[in-house]
Each structure stands twice: as C-alpha cells, then as structure tokens.
Amino acid sequence: MENNKTEKKLKILAVGDVHGDTGLVKRLVEKAKKENVDIIILAGDLTLAEQSIEGIIGPFAKAKKEILIVPGNHESIATTAFLSEMYAPYSKHLHGYSFKKNNVGFFGAGTANMGIHQIKDNEIFSLLQKSHGKIKDLQKKIMVTHIHPRGTKSEFSGWQGSKAVRKAIEEFQPDIAICSHVHEAAGLEENIGKTRVINVSRKEKIFEI
Predict the structure, then answer these.
(1) CA-to-CA distance for 138 and 25, rounded, in angstroms?
(2) CA-CA distance, 107 to 128, in Å (whole number)?
(3) 176 by DSSP, 3-state: which?
C-alpha cells in the first residue's frame, strides 16, 4: 500500500505569459481535460498590463482543475491574490506560499526584477526561501517563478535572468523549475545541477512527476 502511494504520479500542465488571451486559455482547458491533467501552473503575466482579468482562471476552475498562480510583471500581486480567492477552492496563490499534493511540494514567487510590477531580486529569494521551508522534506519539489534564472539559455534574447532564482535553484535543488517571461525562449529546457529548468512562456508543457 505504501509503495502505491509513493509511486502515484501527478500530471501537470504549466504555461506562462497568457497575457489575457482567452482563446489560448480555452485551448489549454480542452487539452488539460483531454490529457487528464491534475494541476495547472500559471507562471505569471496572466494579463496584459491588467487590461482584463476575465476568462483567464475561470475556465480552468470550471473544468475542476487545481490551479497554482504566481504574478508576472504585467499584474500586481494583489490581482493574482484576488483571482486565487475568487476561484477558490480550485485556485491557489503560490507567491511566497506552498502547496502539497501526494508526495510533491510546490513553492514559488512571481513578478520580475524589471517591468511594471517589479520587485527586488532579494525579495524574490526571500519569498522562495519562505515557501520552500514549508515543503522542504517532501520527496519531490517543483519551484515556480515568472522570471528565468541568471546564466541560462533564456538569456539569448538579451533579457538577463534573476540571480535570486538561480541561487534558489542551487540551494533548494527542486526537481523541476518552471519559468516564463521571455516569449522567444518558449520551450527551452536545460539542467542546473539536478534541476530541470523549463521555460513555458506561451508554450505549454505537460509533464509527470
């Protein structure tokens, strides 16, 4: 019985930079239902400068999928906190918080060190440290940020990554680190130590853990 519990895998769909694209959301909801996804990760920039928050979280909640949200630099932390409350119990705010499902722990911090709703790099690290502390002893861990880590492939676009995100990956060694922010870096994957880093900017990734 214990082995069955340990081996049960979660199927996750992660995407960032939706930017209020309700057509993209509808397509992703259908894909999540078809693929029988357990959890949706939205890695920031849900809106385009907060022009509209309609039709972004609701369709996922209507499909009864669990949704984990961090803010990007296009929306305030208050906006994503409001959205997570509005669509509770399906949606959870992961910005400085953690979430547990089976033997997997999720922790995260959104926004970036640039843009409209930026926060300082040291604040990003502090939030990641705080949220990681709650799930540090779990077997598997997934870290979610909006901005990519410093010194990674996503920097080919000219946008520097976050030193704080890099430090958090090296220190906390999550199994998977999800990021977005740079649209041109969509789909890029690489490893930092044991951590698989996946950029999901406007290009969803489905994986199991």
Answers:
(1) 31
(2) 7
(3) strand
Integer angstrom CA distances of residue 39 from 33, 62, 78, 121, 205:
11, 13, 22, 28, 12
CB-based contact 13:207 (threshold 8 Å): no
Q: Which pLDDT tens digit goes with each residue over 83-114?
A: 999 999 999 999 999 999 999 999 999 998 76
| Cβ proximity of 143 and 68 under 8 Å | no
- Smallest CA-to-CA distance from 40 within 73, 19, 18, 72 is with 18
pLDDT tens-digit map of 135-157: 999 999 999 999 999 999 999 98
β-pairing verdict for 98-101 and 104-109: antiparallel
- Please check the confidence at residue 172 and state whether its pLDDT lies above 70: yes
Q: Which two tokens stand for residue 62?
A: 């209507």
pTM value > 0.90: yes
Other Cβ atoms less than 10 A from the Cβ of 23: the count is 8
- The residue with tokens 């779990």 is 138
Distances (CA, A) of 141 to 83, 130, 146: 24, 14, 17
2 band by pLDDT with thresholds 50, 70 and 90: very low
